[in-house]
Each structure stands twice: as C-alpha cells, then as structure tokens.
Amino acid sequence: MFTRRSSVLAAQAMCTAALATVVATATPASAQTTVACSESALSTAIANSAGGDTLRLTPGCTYTLTTPLPTITSDIVIDGNHSTITRSSAASFGILTVGATGDLTICDVTITNGDAPDFGGGIANYGELTVRGSVVRNNHANFSGGIGGFSGTTTRIENTSIMSNTANINGGGVANDGNMTIVNSRVIGNTANSGVGGAAANDGTLSILRSNLNENHAQRAGGVANVGGGSTEIRNSNVNTNTAAVAPGGVLNTGGTVVLNSSRVRNNQPTNCAGSDISIPNCTG
Q: pLDDT tier at 24 (50, 70, 90 boundaries)?
C-alpha cells in the first residue's frame, strides 16, 4: 500500500500538472486568480470565473463560510495551498456544489463542517469533479456525508482522505449514483446512521483502487454497499475493521455486481460479507 508521504507528493505533482494544463490552454480571460483570505473573496472569485480559470487560495487560510458558495457552472481549478474551507456553525449548507455544466478540479484543500440538507455534505457533484491530495472530513448530509456523485456525473478522488463524515441514511463517506473512481485514498471513520455504506454506497459504477476503507460504521455494511443494480469493483484495496448493526459489516450487494480483485475484506463485524443479499465472490466470513 502507498505511504502518506508518497501519496501527498504524488497528489501535489498531479495538481501542478492540472494547473499547468489549464494555464497552457487558457485564453486572456481565463487567468490565474489569487484569492484573498476571506469568504467574500472566494465567493466572488467563483461567481466571476470563466471557463479554464484557476483559483489559487491563500496559503494556510481558513475560509469560513456564513452563506453558501455559488454553484460551480464552468471549468475551474482550485489550488488549495494547504487551505481550509469550512462552514460557520450558525448556518446549514454543503461546502461546494458542482452544477450540471461544471467541471471542478480541487487540490490540496481541507473541506470540513458542511451540513447539506440532502446530498453531499462536503461536495455535491452534479457535473464533473476531481479531488486530489485533499481532506474531506466532519461533514454531514442525509446522503453522502463527504462527497456525493449524482446520476450521470463523473467523480474522481485521488490521494485524498475522507474521514469522520456522517450520513443520516446512506453513504457516510461517499455516495455514488453516477461514475466514481477512488484511487490511493483513505475512507476512514465515516458513519451511515440508519442506512447502508458507512464508507461508500453505490448504485452507479464505482471503482476503488489501492485504497483503505477501514473503521467505518452503518446500520448495514459499514464498509461498502452496492445497491439498486450498481456495479462495484474493489481492486488492491483493504476493507477492514468496519462495523454494522446488521450483517454484513464489510461488503453488501443487494443487486448488480461486486468484484473483489486482490483485496482484503477482514475483521469486519458482525461479518465480512456473510449475510449479503447476493453473495460476494472471493469474500469469506
């Protein structure tokens, strides 16, 4: 498995590459913008961005939101520079929303304390989303406490930690109705209070590669839940020490397909995969 240092360095390199691509293809109206350390500056920068813009956040800044940010409706790169975007406890909304026409790449930022009324407590994706080298933690929603990909969307999560997020129903860490790929990432300590998929709930197409989905909890399937005819592949990954009130604790399939390739599903409670509506090949216990 990857180390934390190597994953961060790889993510920074990928973020730099993404920024270089944007700069190389940018028109004069599609420039890089340094965003001052304030809520209003970040909101204005997103609202005024044109296709291909790069927003460089102030290094180490905490952007504390009292009102929702504008929905992202164009092609934007946000270079976080080790910054944090968080919600004031006085209001209730998710942190970032990518609209149907939006294409967001976000790098090196912490997304925290989002509280969406329905979908995507940290990030709600209705378009195209790439998250690299970031942390999504302590967010909340009914579905997809951390990151949610709606039907027809594409979501890619690389070298990212999705931690301690909560869904009232399904998908404590992530919930996917579209096409989602999770690579070299950690999905740890998330909770689906009354539903399935403490780490991940999927009824679209979900690929999990070289990642750890550990210590999550749900009413059923503390690790991964594949439902509604979805397709899930878990390759070279760990789904360990997750818990559920009702078996299985590790991986659940209620419809569709689940494929385990060179992955470990171990030490989940009350079972690893036993009790799944449809048996999980290559999983015992």
A: very low
Nearest to 94 by CA among 73, 71, 68, 76: 68
Angle at 153 between CA 209 and CA 23, to 5 degrees: 85
Residues 6 or more apart whose CB falls under 8 angstroms from that of 218 comprise 172, 191, 192, 193, 195, 196, 197, 198, 225, 242, 244, 245
Percent of the chain with pLDDT over 70: 89
Going by the DSSP 8-state scheme, the letter that residue 97 receives in this structure is: E
From residue 200, alpha-carbon distances to 47, 72, 87, 127, 182 in Å are 31, 24, 23, 19, 10
H/E segment holding residue 261: strand 257-261
What are φ and ψ of residue 47, in 5° steps? -65, -35
- 100 is written with which tokens? 């149907």
Predicted TM-score of the model (pTM): 0.91
Under a CB-based contact definition with an 8 Å cutoff, are residues 49 and 74 in contact?
yes
Nearest to 87 by CA among 57, 63, 108, 110: 63
Strand spans (E) along 48-204? 53-57, 62-65, 75-87, 96-98, 103-112, 123-125, 128-132, 135-137, 140-141, 147-149, 154-158, 161-163, 166-167, 174-176, 179-183, 186-188, 191-196, 200-202
Strands 243-246 and 217-220: parallel
Among 24-33, 100-109, 125-134, 148-157, the range scoring the smallest mean pLDDT is: 24-33
State both tokens at 207: 């690929």
C-alpha radius of gyration, the chain, whole number: 18
Looking at 158-268, list the stretches that DSSP marks H as alpha helix, in order from N- to C-terminal side.
Answer: none
Longest Cα pair distance anywhere in the chain, in angstroms? 59
Mean pLDDT for all residues in the chain: 91
Q: How confident is the model at residue 19 (pLDDT cuts 50, 70, 90)?
A: low
